[in-house]
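#onboarding

Welcome to the new folks! Below is a worked example of what a typical request in this channel looks like: someone posts a single protein sequence, and someone else replies with the predicted structure as tokens. Don't worry about understanding the tokens yet, we'll cover that in week two.

Example request:
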Amino acid sequence: MRNGKRSSVRSAWKNPMPDIDLTQFCAKEADSQYDFRAPFSKGPWTYATNRMIIIRVPRREDVAEIDTGATWLYDNPKLPDCEKIFSNADGRGPYTWLDVPDVTLECHFAKSIPVKFEINEVAIGLSSILLDLIRKNLPNPQIGLIEAAATTCKVLVPVKIRFDGGTGLLMPIRLSEARNG
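Example response:
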């Protein structure tokens, strides 16, 4: 209660964005190492990933803690340390932030076409399908570009995503048939 009135503000920490369907960012099927077909929580965060994109929001009560000993899948010592991945991304920079462009897909089942972005004369390719998914499903999304994400680099690093209620990372893709973003 605030000034004798009940506060209508919900704690963003307990359920940050109930209208975001995190399963949209999950893998469609398990692969040989991981089963990321559903969101999972670890510590104070809830994650959703398909290995090309990872979304992180404050822990959601409706998403279980990842059980690292429950199945062969999570016994795998190669299970990604999500916090280390985000920490590494935070240590790079500076990032150039842009609104996620409107990418029109010609067909629902279309092959992802790289969308070309340029930063300091360096080209970065991002998936048209994932950009469309981000723009349509995350509130006020932006992408943070960094030169190290250039598709000409030997080791690709992700670009950052920020949106109301969370953050994410998006892996770049090779530029072959790119259109400008």
